[in-house]
Specification:
Blueprint lengths: L11 H9 L11 H15 L2 H19 L5 E7 L13 E4 L4 E7 L9 H19 L10 H15 L8 E4 L3 E4 L1 H6 L2
Parallel strand pairs: 1-3
Antiparallel strand pairs: 2-3, 4-5
Helix pairs in contact: 2-3, 4-5
This protein binds zinc ion.
Zinc ion binds next to helix 4.
Length: 188
């Protein structure tokens, strides 16, 4: 995973603020999102996109209420559209800031392989964090910064009830960063 290149424009301040914010408040009711996440997993077992959509909508509705942001819509598709609207690197979903719509797909476009629950939930959290960037943090854009990935990981591990792992980063050219997986997996 790579971060975006810092913008040259006036957006730089927002970009570096997004980079610095590494955590996210979580609901006091520690069971709320994990219970819904389990419903998503169960719905995925049925293979029916309508059931998955209902569970995802409930997840987003509760999360939006907790963060006090407008509700975002969600659409679950069987397979990835051939042409993505948003960031091409996102294999299993996208978020449209204009319509506040999250789209998720259960299969890859080419190989038609089914997405694992972990990847699917992680994508849902990722797209919802784009929504939070605009409506909670009020950034002018939603960049993939180190902070963005950390916030996504905080939400994902909370919902999945897995221990949060601190992410370690290595610099790459152009002011970008990549996750140092060996160090992250070792825990430092
Ligand atoms: Zn993204």
């Amino acid at each position: 995973m790579f971060t975006d290149t810092p913008p040259r424009s006036k957006d730089r301040t927002g970009f570096f603020e997004s980079d610095r914010i590494k955590t996210l408040d979580l609901p006091l009711d520690a069971q709320l999102l994990p219970e819904i996440a389990k419903n998503i997993a169960a719905a995925m077992q049925t293979g029916k996109t309508t059931e998955v959509r209902v569970a995802c909508a409930e997840f987003l509705s509760q999360a939006s209420r907790f963060y006090q942001v407008p509700k975002c819509g969600v659409r679950v598709l069987a397979a990835r559209p051939l042409k993505g609207r948003e960031w091409v690197t996102e294999l299993f979903g996208d978020y449209d800031p204009t319509t506040m719509l999250i789209r998720l797909w259960m299969r890859t476009a080419r190989k038609k392989e089914i997405t694992s629950f972990g990847t699917f939930l992680s994508t849902l959290c990722h797209e919802f964090c784009h929504h939070l960037d605009y409506h909670l943090f009020k950034f002018s854009d939603s960049w993939h910064t180190r902070g963005f990935y950390e916030r996504t990981a905080v939400l994902y591990h909370h919902a999945r009830e897995t221990p949060y792992k601190r992410l370690f980063w290595a610099p790459v050219a152009g002011g970008r960063w990549r996750i140092d997986w060996p160090r992250t997996n070792r825990g430092g």
